[in-house]
Amino acid sequence: MCDKDPNKKFFGKTISPGLGHGKTFLYRRKPWRFNEIQDIEVSEIEAELRRFELAVAEVLRDLKNIAEQVAEEIDEDLSAIFQAHMAMVSDKGLNEEVKKKINEEQICAGSAVSIVFGRWEQRFSAMEAEIAREKADDIHDLTQRLVLALAGVGAHELKENLPRGAVLVTDRLMPSDTIFLSGRNVSAVVLETGGKASHAALFAREMGIPCIAGIKGVVDEVPSGMLALVDADEGTIIINPDQDEKSNFQKKSARKNQVRSKVRARSHKPAITKSGKVISVFANVGQKEDVREAIKNGADGIGLFRLENIYLGRQGPPDHHRLLKEIRETLFDARQLPVFVRLLDIGADKPFPFKKKQREPNPSLGRRGIRFLLEYPELLMTQLAVFLQLARIFDLHVLVPMVTLPSDMQSVKDYLKQAASQAKTAPMPKLGAMIETPAAALSASEINNYSDFLSFGTNDLVQYTFAADRENGAVEAYFDDTHEAVFRLLEIAGREAPQMPLSICGELAGREEALPKILSCGITTVSVVPASIPRIKEAVRQCD
Ligand code: PEP
Ligand code: MG
Q1: Cβ distance 105 to 172 under 8 Å?
Q2: Same domain for 383 and 508?
């Protein structure tokens, strides 16, 4: 790097928080796809089929080694990603499809793999659910492995060339790339694309590597070997920083280290306000890894388990046995703590994959959450029956999403009683309404009659209070979750249901500056993303 190099700043979104600095390492994936179909002679078919089988065996061997390495060096659970890849690559149907293509169309194995796997990748990318798009990444990764194995290319470029302590700049991170990051102390990762829920993001967070995504064109603008300061808390990367930027970064880094060690040491202790009130700090989770992180960070409970992950991206709704198994496994580590599991919250931005699409003029104001479940009681009853069984193991609380009328809660309570009498089981889980609409907040005194607790879902409460779609950036300015109107609704609901335990699980719960107001509405449990638990506990301790 020389001083004449231009100073550049880029903005992206946080995938894994933290600060990191070092020299950039630009990783451009080698083109490996078969853009042209390569024909073969009939006499070559046998050899080509054999080559394909050998490539599959080689990839399986590699994946097995990686899974073992990940289990040993990073995390046992994360190694499941590579075990899933093994299952995919040895899938009989897929393999037969590839062989059929080689045989019938007389094309080389690489072309056949590209076509067959590529089609599956496209199908998954076209699906709306993020979880399906992650699957597309997995298939992309596997296709690359197979094609490279067929071409006889063994080593991964990152394995060969990635310098210690570098800031990795690339287009996207595949699970196969992440394995080379752990041992080499990568300081940070900067990506053109990548979702918070991607496997790569899981790895980055698990390994504590700061990571930013969503910087379009960064691979074309940042060469290798430049000094880079990555602030993944803010989502910024500065290339070739000036003296001021360097010293600000150093100061921030030193401050963070100090605060982190203090906060970490206290995160397993209860959060008590200055006036002596104990506030429970719970975690919002969607999968097992979140639960693990929550416990590691000192969560007092699980305040929102979103069931949607279990439903989206599969052929049909899970049956009783599968649903029970998945929830039990996901929450197993939290079995000593109170857990709040939400009934399936489908509709609006999370379209239901199994039922025929029934177009609605405005899905956000249509059949979503509990409205949808009351229309399909068989879905509701399966969940309630599972929850009844789970209540034997867990201190279980059931959250009802998108309640508007007291009768919504009355119906769920009736169904729960019916499910309990069929199952002849005790104890009953506690039942709580999510207050996500102004009507529900203003009817808290009646909803009270059918609830054991209330939980404010402020993401939706704000959307419906300000008539501003939470997914629509154009009306972002109206989506103000710290507006006085929101606190008034919280306060009214608290006043109308004076004996009710009140919790909050929307994003507002994670805003330190809003905590004093939140607590003054009588809320005693705040539920936030696992990474925020130590910070929010500390903020509670500063409240009067
Ligand atoms: C909310 O609406 O605040 C909430 C927690 O639920 P979700 O974000 O899943 O809709
Ligand atoms: Mg909601």
Answers
A1: no
A2: yes
Give me the chain's average pLDDT, please: 87
Do residues 270 and 324 both lie within one domain?
A: yes
pLDDT per residue as tens digits for the range 451-509: 999 999 999 999 999 999 887 767 878 989 999 999 999 999 999 999 999 999 998 99
Burial of 380 (0-12, 13-18, 19+ CB in 10 A): buried
Ligand 1 neighbourhood includes 481 CB (under 6 angstroms)? no
pLDDT digits (tens, 9 = 90+) for 159-214: 767 888 899 999 888 777 776 776 557 899 999 987 665 666 767 876 778 999 98
Closest by CA to 309, choosing from 329, 285, 291, 328, is: 285
pLDDT of residue 246: 95
pLDDT at position 421 over 90: yes
Q: CB under 8 Å to 515, separation ≥6 — which residues?
A: 526, 536, 539, 540, 543
Read off the pLDDT of each residue in 318-342 and give the average, rounded to a whole number.
96
Nearest CA to ligand 1 atom 6: 457
Q: How far is the CA of 315 from the centre of ligand 2 (A)?
A: 24
Distance 163 CA to ligand 2 centre (A): 44
Does the C-beta of 510 come closer than 6 Å to ligand 1?
A: no
pTM: 0.64
CA 448 to chain CA centroid, Å, is 32
Inter-CA distances, 204 with 47, 426, 512, 535, Å: 41, 42, 25, 20
Q: What is the atom index within ligand 1 of the atom nearest the CA of 456?
A: 3
Range of the domain at 101: 42-150
Best of 196, 403, 459 to mutate for ligand 1, by most ligand atoms within 8 A of CB?
459
The domain boundary residue, chosen from 150, 176, 207: 150
Q: What's the pLDDT at 1? A: 45
From the centroid of its chain, how far is CA 534? Answer: 19
pLDDT of residue 26: 92
Can you tell me the mean pLDDT for 211-236? 93
306 Cβ closer than 6 Å to some ligand 1 atom: yes
Answer yes or no: do 421 and 505 share one domain.
Answer: yes
**Atom 9 in ligand 1: residue holding the nearest Cα:** 306
Whether 167 and 230 have beta carbons less than 8 Å apart is answered as yes
Which of 150, 184, 145, 163 lies closest to 38, judged by CA?
150
Query: Which pLDDT score, from 0 to 100, does residue 93 have?
Result: 83
Total number of domains in the chain:
3
Is 459 near ligand 1, meaning CB less than 6 Å away?
A: yes
298 & 362 share domain: yes
Ligand 1, residue 507: give the atom nearest the CA: 3
Domain membership of residue 248 (yes or no) is no
Ligand 2 centroid to Cα of residue 464, in Å, is 10
Summarize the confidence of residues 52-69 as an average pLDDT.
Answer: 88
Q: Of 150, 165, 198, which residue is a domain's last?
A: 150
Q: Is residue 257 part of a domain?
A: no
Shared domain check, 55 and 23: no
Protein residue closest via CA to atom 4 of ligand 1: 457
